């Protein structure tokens, strides 16, 4: 089972549409709902309404939540475990990007953007990972390894590069998420849960969104842990990659 945050965004929507028949997906979204069959709809063939429709056989389970609010992470974990009993893949995709066009010299805008971005981009992934560890993964090492349980954090190339346009706070949050991923991988290895991050270039402008979604699925099916893997971008460097992924260097990649 996959617990996916940011399911209503561009990448979350692409992941749900591509993999709703592969995974049981708990799709966490705040407002927009992914364009994939869900518990909120039932498909009927207008010509032969008595015949089964393939879209009804696999569906995502939509959960609406504002993860920046206190206690929402716990509610989401409760619902996911109540629905499926366990989580095999956690995809931390929800993110907030606020730019400061006047740069850091406009201290008020940068400071106002700091809390909300670090909450959603760093604190929420940490809360979800630790809650699932406490509620589902601890003391189940053999089961975790057998089911190849893991976390994929969605980072950004901006976590390791300096881009114009006032992205300093956002970039800092992604650099923090990258290194947090490495620490989670090191600590969760004790009970057999892997952790990696994907750090895509701008999508869909420079990298097709479907390629980024495929990179998440590739990390889930693999055995790697503790890496931050770029998707797109001119840099060939980054830990050692697999098809479609280039691994991040030991410094704070993104």
Automatic annotation (TrEMBL):
CDD domains membership: SDR_c
GO molecular function: oxidoreductase activity
InterPro entries: NAD(P)-bd_dom_sf, SDR_fam
The keyword Acyltransferase belongs to this UniProt entry's keyword annotation: no
Keyword Oxidoreductase: yes
Keywords (A to Z) from UniProt: Oxidoreductase
Highest taxon, organism lineage: Bacteria
Pfam families: adh_short
Family: Belongs to the short-chain dehydrogenases/reductases (SDR) family.
Protein name: SDR family oxidoreductase
Species of origin: Nocardia veterana
């Amino acid at each position: 089972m996959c617990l996916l945050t940011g399911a209503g965004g561009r990448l979350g929507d692409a992941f749900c549409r591509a993999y709703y028949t592969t995974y049981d997906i708990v799709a966490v979204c705040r407002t927009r709902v992914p364009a994939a069959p869900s518990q909120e709809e039932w498909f009927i063939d207008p010509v032969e309404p008595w015949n089964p429709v393939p879209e009804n056989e696999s569906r995502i389970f939509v959960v609406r939540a504002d993860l920046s609010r206190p206690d929402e992470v716990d509610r989401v974990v409760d619902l996911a475990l109540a629905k499926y009993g366990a989580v095999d893949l956690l995809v931390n995709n929800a993110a907030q990007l606020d730019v400061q066009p006047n740069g850091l010299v406009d201290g008020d805008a940068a400071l106002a953007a700091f809390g909300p971005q670090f909450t959603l981009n760093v604190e929420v992934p940490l809360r979800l990972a630790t809650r699932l560890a406490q509620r589902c993964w601890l003391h189940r090492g053999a089961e975790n390894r057998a089911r190849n349980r893991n976390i994929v954090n969605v980072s950004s190339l901006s976590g390791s590069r300096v881009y114009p346009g006032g992205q300093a706070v956002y970039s800092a949050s992604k650099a923090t998420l990258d290194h947090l991923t490495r620490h989670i991988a090191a600590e969760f290895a004790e009970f057999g849960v892997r952790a990696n991050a994907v750090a895509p270039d701008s999508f869909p402008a420079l990298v097709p969104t479907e390629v980024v979604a495929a990179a998440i699925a590739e990390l889930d099916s693999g055995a790697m842990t503790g890496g931050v893997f770029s998707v797109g971008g001119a840099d060939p460097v980054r830990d050692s990659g697999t098809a479609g992924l280039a691994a991040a260097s030991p410094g704070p990649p993104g």
